[in-house]
Amino acid sequence: NPYFLEAKRQNIALELLESERKYVINLSLILKIKATLQGPDVKRSTKERSFFPNSLRYLVQQHVDLLHALQERVLSWPRQGILGDIFLKLTNDENNFLDYYVAYLRDLPECISLIHVVILKEVEEEIKSDLYILFFHIVQRIPEYLIHLQNVLKFTEQEHPDYYLLLVCVQRLRVFISHYSLLFQCNEDLLIQKR
User: Fold this and answer.
1) Distance of CA 25 to the CA centre of its chain
2) pLDDT tens-digit profile of 104-145?
3) Homologous superfamily in CATH for domain 2-39+50-194
4) Could you read off the pLDDT of 44-95 as tens digits, one per residue?
5) What are the distances in angstroms from CA 107 to CA 4, 25, 31, 55, 56?
6) Residues of 78-100 as b/e, b for ≥16 C-beta within 10 angstroms?
7) Whose CA is closest to 165, among 9, 31, 33?
8) How much is the pTM?
9) Sorted alphabetically, which InterPro entries does this protein's record hold (predicted)?
């Protein structure tokens, strides 16, 4: 039943939108914590070294844009709604979106050890564990997109204008995740261990 499929796709699109909204809130929480930690209390010597991956600011901007694009698309969902083009553009080689995730994954271990050593003494445990949880969300975000898009694809017929776009996006994300699987694994293990 095509109506069932479309309804199912719309629901998954709404779930994706909701998860993006929560994700953007999480990212902005990290920036808030970052602002408090870089306040006058933190010793001068540690200011030069960054406790936070440099790519964070850029990622926040990208995800705010993505949230707006998804909102516009999903809240006025036509009968044959399309999502693939948004993620196609995002994962395109001309766009640095995935590169910034790689940079994030590469910077994170050092940031975690700095936080562990330096901030440990000056900040209550709670903030630290919140931070690790928020960092963890970022590590998991790309794999989450893969799951969302695979779900949409499951309910997309081959004749649907979104089918091929989604197929390419899913393929790109799979390749990306498997290419950097060690980096993902190492960061996940590190954060689980610290928590």
Assistant:
1) 11
2) 999 999 988 887 777 656 666 777 788 889 999 999 999 999
3) Dbl homology (DH) domain (1.20.900.10)
4) 555 546 788 999 999 999 999 999 999 999 999 988 899 999 999 999 988 9
5) 44, 22, 16, 9, 10
6) eeebbbbebbbebbeeeeebbeb
7) 9
8) 0.91
9) ARHGEF33, DBL_dom_sf, DH_dom
